[in-house]
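[Automated response] Your request has been received and processed.

Submitted sequence:
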Amino acid sequence: MLEERIRHAALRSRVMLADEAQRYIQNGMNVGVSGFTKCGDVKAIPKALARRAQRSGEAFKINLFTGASLGEAESILAKANLIDRRMPYQGDPTLRAGINKGDVRYVDQHLSHMAEWVRGGILDIDIAVIEATAITENGGIVPTTSVGNSATFVQRARQVIVELNLSVPTSFEGLHDIYLPKDRPYRSWIPIQTVSDRIGTPYIPCDPEKIVAIVVNDEPDSDSKIQSADGDTQRMAEYILEFFDWEVRQGRLPDNLLPLQSGVGSVSNAVLSGLKRSRFENLNIYTEVMQDAVFELFEAGKVNYASASSFALSEKMSRHVLSSIDSYRDKMVLRPQEISNHPEVVRRLGVIAMNTALEVDLYGNVNSTHVTGSKMMNGIGGSGDFARNAALTIFVTKSVAKDGRISSVVPFVSHVDHTEHDVDVLVTEQGIADLRGLAPRERARMIIEKLVHPDYKDALLDYYTRAARRGGHTPHLMEEALSWHARLEQVGDMRKTRGLVRVQ
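Generated structure:
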């Protein structure tokens, strides 16, 4: 089995246990690891580091750099208090608590940007830990279920540890397309003109001398906990599909739409899943993550081709995909995230971007990261990469949260991730608002009419009416703009009026 998986004969002598390999990682190191949305992430080395900390009592921390969120490894490292600095995206409750207490220095960054920092020398990588399904004759690393930032980490790291995962079949080889831009200012255009274009190698190029250890394991990826569609998410999906149909009839979209990007989450998954029952066919996907719905669309014969950087699958779907990967080989590709999310390619292909918001405001600004402006959830992820450069940018959110105590449509968002300039369409279960070509006052009236929950509609209309009387291109009452968030923090409910500073 090792001869099949490690085809570079000299590297077979570097196979060792995780407890031995982890000793290459020292206090204060910048460690770049594979993993994107819980897929293709390292599994053995983080556990070995935690055992080392518990066993020896040694005080050490690492700076952890990834593609996006990890599975169990992120929680293990956070609980062991081993993370000093973290970027560019995370999704673990324990780590989130450390970030919001200030114990972990978290840098929230656009996913397509981090590789540029590494390539440009802003971030040095001491050691890369990369999950693989095989190592080629020339030392090339064949990734598993994600690519993320792995290729850049390997390119720039001083040393590399490979986690050889036997649970991923060797038939994954050939699924990936590894292409890295040249250093600036000698960079050429990225020659992707269709979703299915392949422009690189099926493995991550690596100098075999860099590989200091190979750890063998057979642990599966953590499964994605996507909630089943409920009535609200189904309604939002229906609004978007009706909107697509309208755009086609107006001649603004082709019959098979444009390449689709969908962020991770139940709403985005519901929208893609809804396409199974739509009239749309011959669809193409150009996204960062392939969720269950993408494979459901494959099975329904709706999708021609899908390009992403990672999977994000339920346990059941993951088993299906791993056991039948050969049937998808000519239908999809996994790329580095700086290519899957690259603004140049997104704009050239004319992607339709669909992502999730925590809250939106009267004028179309979107907060996708911070609760009440200061508490980090997960991070901006790739939504900004797509939002600014897509042909059509859609953000979705339920109109209320926490049993109605929070309105997701507010006078002014408490943190801005996507400005009104990058937002075309907003959707809640109450309706859909096409903001294209509208001035701020027009946007405000449409958002109030179409998107706001009935419990908050009168209050938001009252705020806007009084702000408009005061004047301004984008009317606001600065004394009240964040008062809804202040009430939430003070009394736990945006509907309560205690503490409201009301301006006539």
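Summary generated for your ticket: The mean pLDDT is 95. The two ends are 76 Å apart (CA to CA).
If you did not submit this request, please reply to this message.
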